[in-house]
Specification:
The complex is a heterodimer of chains A (281) and B (309). By secondary structure, chain A is mainly α. Chain A has 14 helices and two strands. Chain A has two domains: 55 residues, no CATH class; 207 residues, MetI-like fold. Chain A is 75% helix and 1% strand. Chain A is globular. Chain B is mainly α and 309 residues long. Classes of the chains: A mainly alpha (281), B mainly alpha (309). At the A-B interface, α1, α4, α5, α6 and α8 of A face α1, α3, α5, α6 and α7 of B.
């Protein structure tokens, strides 16, 4: 017996709940977009309805960002830092993940968990001693200090992620190569790495986004504007004293957030598999 | 295969013996990662412990050992005790809120409906976007004069312009704000974790239980919950660790204010150790987080081990 009224009510309730979640999650971003393209006179007029444009949208905030601030420099800094950290992470985490997956047996498992746990050591516990270490190395107030420090959380995370992935690569692939005269190292480079391209890509994307998201170390180590990362620069340099440049702030936040949001969405499922360490099989 | 064999025969060098032994190659492969982490996590950690029992400040860099006096001093400070309480309120408040939102969100997304992919992509945004940037958007929404939340409440006739709340300037409201922003940041993560867990429960197990007469609640609490427990606990511990030690949301939204009402351990450590330069006391404040972290890690280890049996 179909009861159309009850069904319609249930469906309506369902989609209302979905709408609630979407608005909750996405409204601040909608707000960023609206603010980033609004004229100041529109922005700071309380009699206007704030949810849409009451005057023509403008690009003046974005122009200001690129012409009057070091925004382009911050973008460049973040890109350079991200690429360097990706390189360091790949060089260390690829062999480590492989070795932990294949070679050291039960100790490997324990060691893998041990490395993973260092991912949980928070920056707020380490920033004091690390800032002294960086001063000793002469890297204070330099973006290169971040290149040095960021791998401390990307290496553990990516080693763990790659370990899970390498376990799923059948041993027969390497064994065939070894029978054919390859060394184990050769088998790793020639046979395992080529089939691991999706995993390597995931590591690259996540290392990069993790460096873009980091805030605490950047805040602690960097004070001159020219050395700042995009996240730090936007939230600290666009506030002068008590005056907030909301249009510019939101425009900067928006530009920095878009690539990360897209990358995250594309690689979300792999990220979850990494975080839960293959608890789901 | 022949090509590979020939190539590697040609390349045989005197280092070949190293590359052929798993016993040598294994440690060789692991060591760069381990050394990097030891040098830049292990050593600084020990250094932090030492700072906390020394008299080190950036103005007088003395490593003089002062015992536990830094800890006694911080525990006598009212600001620190407020901070400690705040940290627990902030952590539990936002995690519970985040979990509730996460569980309901996951239930909704479990059902296929048109546009589900887009809905999921939008819901994941708070967790994907760098927290500092999203927090600034919230700061703008909580603005004392131009708050869009207040504008809406006034337009709907709930409040007057004269008694509109100053979200970040009133102690209890400010605490609520930092909790909401943190829960907002973590609920997509909770949704995704719940979803990953639920979709991993084999359908035949559920079918078998249904055939054996288990109803909705029994299926839910005696079959699904035990199966997804490990992954949910791992996710929850992640959230708790990062919330408990967080600094960015409080730093950007309230700077610990008004009058320390939202000061948390991570922020106070930064305030004392970096801004004031009193490294010893800053390190002591940060290290107070350690016992809680250890408990969480032990629980996490038990769950990770359990899934392997």
């Amino acid at each position: 017996m179909p009861r159309p009224f009850a069904t319609a009510l249930r469906e309506g309730g369902f989609f209302a709940a979905v709408a609630f979640f979407v608005i909750l999650a996405a409204f601040p971003f909608y707000w960023m977009v609206i603010t980033a393209f609004k004229e100041n006179s529109d922005l700071y007029d309380l009699s206007n309805i704030p949810f849409w444009f009451n005057e023509m949208p403008t690009l003046e905030h974005i122009e200001y960002l690129f012409q009057q601030t070091l925004f382009a420099r911050w973008l460049l800094n973040s890109t350079v830092i991200g690429l360097c950290v990706v390189a360091i992470t790949l060089v260390t985490a690829l062999p480590a993940g492989y070795a932990l997956a294949r070679m050291t047996g039960r100790n490997g498992e324990a060691l893998g968990i041990g490395i993973f746990l260092t991912y949980l050591v928070p920056p707020t516990l380490l920033f004091l001693p690390l800032s002294r270490v960086i001063t000793v190395l002469g890297l204070q107030d330099s973006m290169w200090s971040l290149v040095l420090v960021y791998p401390t959380f990307t290496i553990p995370f990516c080693t763990w992620l790659l370990m899970g992935f390498f376990k799923a690569v059948p041993r027969e692939i390497e064994e065939a190569a070894i029978v054919d005269g390859c060394s184990i190292f050769g088998a790793f480079v020639k046979m395992v790495l080529p089939v691991s391209v999706p995993a390597i890509l995931t590591v690259v994307i996540f290392t990069f986004t993790l460096t873009l998201q980091e805030f605490v170390y950047a805040l602690t180590f960097i004070s001159s504007s020219a050395q700042k990362t995009i996240t730090l620069g936007v939230v600290t340099d666009l506030v002068r004293g008590d005056i907030y440049f909301w249009g510019e702030l939101m425009a900067g936040a928006l530009i920095a957030a878009i690539p990360v949001a897209i990358a995250y969405n594309l690689f979300l499922d792999r990220f979850i598999a990494g975080i839960t360490g293959g608890a789901v099989k | 295969m022949v090509a590979i064999a020939e190539k590697s025969l040609k390349r045989r060098s005197r280092f070949q013996f190293i590359l052929d032994r798993p016993k040598v190659l294994g440690p060789l492969f692991v060591s760069p990662a381990i050394l990097y982490v030891l040098a830049l996590v292990g050593v600084p950690f020990l250094l932090a412990v030492y700072y906390s029992v020394s008299a080190y400040t950036i103005y007088s860099q003395s490593y003089k050992f002062v015992g536990l006096s830094n800890f006694f001093q911080i525990f006598q400070s009212d600001i620190f005790r407020t901070t400690l309480a705040n940290t627990f309120i902030f952590t539990f408040g936002s995690q519970i809120l985040g979990l509730v939102l996460g569980k309901f969100g996951a239930l909704l997304l479990l059902r296929p409906f048109p546009g589900r992919k887009i809905v999921r992509a939008l819901i994941v945004l708070p967790w994907a976007v760098p927290v500092a940037l999203a927090t600034v958007a919230w700061e703008w929404m909580f603005d004392s004069l131009y708050s869009v939340i207040n504008w809406t409440l006034i337009a709907l006739g709930f409040i007057d312009r004269s008694d509109a709340p100053n979200w970040l300037g009133t102690p209890h409201l400010a605490m609520l704000c930092v909790m909401v922003v943190n829960a907002w940041r973590f609920f997509p993560f909770a949704i995704v974790i719940f979803l990953a867990g639920i979709t991993a429960v084999p359908q035949d197990v559920i079918d078998a239980a249904t055939v054996d007469g288990a109803g909705f609640w029994r299926r839910n609490y005696q079959i699904i919950v035990p199966i997804i427990a490990p992954i949910v606990v791992v996710g929850l511990i992640f959230g708790t660790v990062f919330t408990f030690t967080d600094l960015s949301i409080v730093y950007l939204l309230t700077m610990g204010g008004p009058v320390n009402a939202t000061s948390v351990l991570g922020f106070e450590g930064f305030q004392v150790g970096i801004l004031s330069g009193d490294v010893a006391h800053g390190a002591a404040i940060s290290l107070v987080m350690l016992p809680v972290l250890l408990v969480l890690v032990v629980v996490m280890l038990r769950f990770i081990r359990r899934r392997e049996i």
